[in-house]
Amino acid sequence: MRIERLGQHHALNKFDCGVKALNQWLINYAKENDRRDLSRTFVLIDDADDVVGFYSLTMGGVQVGNLPRKLARGLPSVAIGMVLLGRLALASELQGQGLGRDLMVDAVLLASAAGQNAAARFIAVDPIDESARGFYAAFGFLNIEGDEMGRMNLRIDDAVAALSEANGVNGKK
After folding, report:
1. What is the DSSP string of 53-104?
2. 26 beta partners
């Protein structure tokens, strides 16, 4: 398995994660969004060169009032840079094998690189359902009190530190 940026050569019609909205977005909009610089999509490719997972990223800003209090402390009242993890999905038959975590790790690392170059402090997600909300919460994403849209946020540096600890970097295990 490998992760690569979505290209025109990738066949998407067979992808099925079990969530119609995510399947349709990948099949109908991912390539056009990339062409128009609206988002970047990265795909998980299996040994048969089939797309079996994906995530998309885009840059944005978030007002301090739209952040969890824990994350907003001490920040100026201006839009703060963030990377939006717009979608993340894995083919139904591969779910539960840790590949969703692999996609998340890759997304966090790319968000971190973007944040270093474009001053993004947070990575945000808009979970499509409660199952997705639980998935993101397990990675440390925080809900925003009173947010009817359900957005969740995580400091990019906290996510990278957690990955480093999980991988035994700096002598930790």
Report:
1. EEEEEEEEEE-GGGS-HHHHTT--SSPEEEEEEEEEEE-GGGTTSSHHHHHH
2. none
Higher pLDDT, 168 or 83: 83
Phi then psi for residue 85, to 5 deg, are -85, 95
* Residues 153 and 72: beta-carbon distance below 8 Å: no
Q: CA 70, CA 78: separation in Å to the nearest integer?
A: 17
Task: Say what angle helices 99-118 and 156-166 make with each other, to 10 degrees.
Answer: 130
The token duo for 161 is: 């530190």
pTM above the 0.85 mark?
A: no
Nearest to 83 by CA among 106, 57, 50: 57
User: What would the two tokens of residue 43 be?
Assistant: 């795909």
CATH architecture of the domain with range 2-171 = 3-Layer(aba) Sandwich (3.40)
pLDDT in the model for residue 173: 33
The yes-or-no verdict on residue 152 having pLDDT over 90 is no
Q: Which residue type sits at 104?
A: M
Mean pLDDT score of the chain: 84
Q: What count of Cα atoms within 13 Å lies in the side-chain half-sphere of residue 116? A: 7
Note every long-range contact of 70-78, with CB atoms under 8 Å and residues 24 or more positions apart, other chains counting: 70/142, 71/122, 71/142, 71/153, 71/155
